[in-house]
Amino acid sequence: MNTFLDHQNWRYATKKFDATKKISNEDLNILKEAIRLSSSSYGLQPYKVIIVENPELRAKIRPSAWGQSQIVEASHLIIFANEINFGTTGIDNYFKNTSETRQIPLESMKGYQELVIKNITSLSEEMRNIWTAKQTYLALGNLLNAAAELKIDATPMEGFVPSEVNEILGLDKLGLNATLIATIGYRHEEDATQHNKKVRKSNEELFITL
């Protein structure tokens, strides 16, 4: 079987982590780079990624995540937070970065920049917040795939109260909103879930070829 598919079959949403095992700085940097290189709409990456190592903060977050033990037992806790009311400033910063990175005049991209600004700012603030929240799922996907390649366990979580996590970490003051949590580390030998067969739809149920 393809190695990538082997790793996808190996991974699962870990329910119990071995708190004694920590991810090396080298592997953590690879995971961070995988997140950084994720695709996003227009390439804008309208979100921040918060890595919570502080055990006291993680203990405070746990009740807001329905008491799930992964929050405190995993090697690292990663929170994806979308930018609230993303607009012209964020877009301008992206095009300045593009100009500097590719060494091309900012003026040469003016038409496209104006198009992106129009497409995004024409949305209501609610729709923009929904759009930026969706972008974090693309980054999460890259994290899950990269972690599997490194044989690092990862558990994506939507089961938490965003407003409480925002308050604990002060995200609302930064114009951010927690959308996703991912705990990463190494499965505990006592986690019985690792022995369960993966349950997915069959090709016939899932795919439609037209």
From TrEMBL:
Gene3D superfamilies: NADH Oxidase
GO molecular function: oxidoreductase activity
Membrane-spanning intervals of the chain: none
Sorted UniProt keywords: Flavoprotein, FMN, NADP, Oxidoreductase
Keyword check for Oxidoreductase: yes
InterPro entries given in the database record: NfsB-like, Nitroreductase, Nitroreductase-like
Record's keyword annotation contains Heme: no
Domain Nitroreductase intervals: 10-186
Cofactor requirement: FMN
Family: Belongs to the nitroreductase family.
Protein name: NAD(P)H-dependent oxidoreductase
Organism: Flavobacterium bomense
